[in-house]
Write a structure and sequence with these properties.
The chain is built from eight helices and three strands. With 295 residues, the protein is mostly helical. It folds into two domains: 206 residues, Cation efflux protein transmembrane domain (Alpha-lytic protease prodomain-like, Up-down Bundle); 76 residues, Alpha-Beta Plaits (2-Layer Sandwich), CATH 3.30.70.1350. A three-stranded mixed β-sheet has the order 1-2-3, covered by helices on one side.
Length: 295
């Protein structure tokens, strides 16, 4: 299962690498030849996508590495770390685009060439299709890194859309409207910054071991409480590691129970949880004596 997940993640990431490389070269070339600063900025954003895809590729690869002596809990945190790095690149790309657009507004430049619109239409279609495909794979694989890469593709499509609108206004308006694509680039930069932030927050939550959905924890507690001789579940702490979960729980049993018997109950709880919830990688159980009268 883990091997198939890694293969799908890497396949999706490499598809993004190939597409981004081709689009980055095409947009920068068209932007320089067609005198469109927004298209050049868009091309630079695609170049940032290249580095992001490489980061995601390494993230999902490292995350799939089995636990070892130095990393007894595995390497799952590599995925949210990759997502955080990708979102940081998004934020810096947004800042670069906004600052560059403001400078171009201050400094007059030529009106973009009409053919740049055709380039942008192709880019928007390709990037939106790529976003939908990668986003779907990210949800299936439960990968924060792949999801982050998907939103990077959507950000690129948005940048291209704003550039298309800006260049169209500049061409229709004629002299005096040359900076329309620069204003469009500023708007695109703000949208990219928002997308970067919305990816950054969940990645940091995962790195900080934020508690999962309460319903998920309640389901695990319910499974444990149904095991014979389990009197109650005192605590249930869960943290996410890549696409898997580590569970720490305190299980109450009869205080007169032998250590060997309690050990068997703990194993039964652990096995049942892992069978019923495959995304749980391991369960650490602390046995507690039940308080009060036993029924």
């Amino acid at each position: 299962m883990e091997k198939r997940r890694l293969q799908r993640s890497v396949r999706v990431t490499f598809l993004g690498l190939v597409v981004n490389a081709a689009l980055a070269a095409g947009k920068v070339t068209a932007g320089v030849v067609g005198h469109s600063h927004a298209l050049v900025a868009d091309g630079v954003e695609s170049t940032a996508d290249l580095f992001s895809s490489i980061i995601v590729w390494r993230g999902v690869t490292v995350a799939a590495t089995p636990a070892d002596k130095d990393h007894p809990y595995g390497h799952g945190k590599a995925e949210p770390l990759a997502a955080a790095l990708v979102s940081t690149i998004l934020l810096f790309a947004a800042l670069w685009i906004i600052v560059g657009a403001i400078e171009d507004i201050i400094r007059p430049h030529n009106t973009p060439a009409p053919f740049t619109l055709a380039v942008l239409v192709g880019v928007i279609v390709i990037k939106e299709l790529l976003f939908r495909y990668v986003s779907k794979e990210g949800m299936v694989l439960h990968s924060s890194a792949v999801n982050a890469d998907a939103w990077h593709h959507r950000s690129d499509a948005i940048t291209s859309l704003f550039a298309f609108i800006g260049i169209s206004i500049a061409l229709v308006g004629g002299r005096g409207y040359e900076s329309a694509d620069d204003y469009a680039a500023i708007l695109a930069g703000l949208v990219i910054a928002w997308n970067g932030w919305r990816v950054f927050r969940p990645a940091m939550d995962e790195l900080m071991d934020v508690a999962p959905d309460p319903a998920f924890a309640e389901e695990i507690k319910r499974i444990a409480s149904k095991i014979p001789e389990v009197v109650g579940v005192e605590k249930c702490l869960i943290r996410k590691m890549g696409n898997e979960y580590q569970v720490d729980m305190h299980v109450e049993v009869d205080p007169e129970m032998t250590v060997e018997h309690a050990h068997g109950v703990a194993h039964a709880v652990k096995d049942e949880i892992r069978v019923k919830v495959p995304s749980v990688r391991d369960v650490l159980i602390h046995i507690e004596p039940a308080r009060g009268e036993l029924s």
